[in-house]
């Protein structure tokens, strides 16, 4: 029997090139057919259809979505994997699957696998102890996740209640302030008190229509207010232009007079201000 002659390097290179050319011709022909008909196979399926089928086939799956029903092919593979006549081998398969799910933090499905492993009734006590321990660990992590989610939910609900409480308090405060402002405006209008603009005194007297017209007009924040007895209190600014000085009365009650305040400011029992050297006011 004659021996087969060995190929030279040149022959190997030529063979590789010929095979590569054949593959390129085949791909080119398929691509041309796909462009013309939209299909690459005799059954009329497109490239995308074939790729999708391959990706969904159990032999090519990288991960299993346990939240969706298993395909018949996957169920068949699972049956082959777990339906062993050897209880120890079956329990070990469930344990390994449970461990993989545990690593992915899919504790609920891991618990189901450990439980099935326990149901396999393996004669190996150590193996059963591991299954029980792993299941307990999965339960612990699952409970921890649930507790953490519950705490987050409770904190969110508490924050929401506090926010709603603060909003109610603010709304109540705003409503009271609006009522007080409306009452103040009505009192001023009933007493026919008109306001004059400080920037344009001609033909600008009018009844105030909003709280903005009532101030505050002083850095202290003082503005007209209505006390519990129904008396108006006005902020009053006194000017002494010859001395470039001012005095400010924050609460000038409408029932009092200028004399009442001037006596308090420049009365005989009051020390004169340092700028009143000639005692014109005291």
From TrEMBL:
GO terms for molecular function: Hsp70 protein binding; Hsp90 protein binding. This is Cns1/TTC4 wheel domain-containing protein. The keyword Repeat applies. The keyword Lipid biosynthesis does not apply. SUPFAM superfamilies: TPR-like (SSF48452). It holds the Pfam family Wheel. One of its GO terms (cellular component) is cytosol. Keywords: Repeat, TPR repeat. InterPro entries: Csn1/TTC4_wheel, TPR-like_helical_dom_sf. Residues 227-280 form the Cns1/TTC4 wheel domain. It comes from the Eukaryota. GO terms for biological process: protein folding.
